[in-house]
Structure formats: structure tokens, C-alpha cells
Design a protein that fits this description.
Layout: H1 6-26, H2 32-85
Helix pairs in contact: 1-2
Length: 86
């Protein structure tokens, strides 16, 4: 089971805030400018969280490929040594 991180909670709170402001705007409470600014800020915040997650995933993938490359090179060296010994 996946652990819930603080960034996940913040992301969903931001999404809920976007929906809440949009619904509040439908009933005419905030001004156009303030609602647009608030929604834009919340969307930007959620995008930052998504991009942070994507870059962390990319970093982990790069490290994994580096480890895999090392293992493959190690095995090829072992095979070459076995071939040279015969």
C-alpha cells in the first residue's frame, strides 16, 4: 500500500480549492479579477507539485539505468575474461 505524502495532500487540497472557488464564482460572490487570480495561483501550485513529482521520477529512472549499465558492463567483462581464458 502506498504511503500518502504531504505533497499529495497539498495537491488535492489545491484541486479542491480550485473547484470550490469555481463553484463560489458561479453563485456570484467573488469579483472576476480576484477569482481568476486565485484560480491561477492554485493551478500554478498544482502544476509545480506535478512537475516536481515528474522530475523526481526521472531522476530515479536515470539512477536505475546507470546501475543497470554498470551491471551489464560487469557481466560483459566477465564473459570476455572467460572467452580469453579458453
Amino acid at each position: 500500500m502506498a504511503k500518502i505524502k504531504l505533497s499529495d495532500v497539498i495537491f488535492w487540497l489545491i484541486i479542491i480549492a480550485i473547484v470550490a472557488i469555481a463553484i463560489w464564482k458561479l453563485f456570484g460572490s467573488p469579483t472576476d479579477t480576484s477569482s481568476i487570480i486565485a484560480i491561477a495561483l492554485f493551478v500554478a501550485g498544482s502544476e509545480l507539485i506535478i512537475w516536481k513529482y515528474v522530475f523526481n521520477l526521472e531522476k530515479k529512472t536515470a539512477v536505475s539505468f546507470t546501475k543497470l549499465k554498470y551491471e551489464i558492463n560487469k557481466r560483459f567483462d566477465t564473459l570476455e575474461n572467460l572467452i580469453k581464458q579458453k
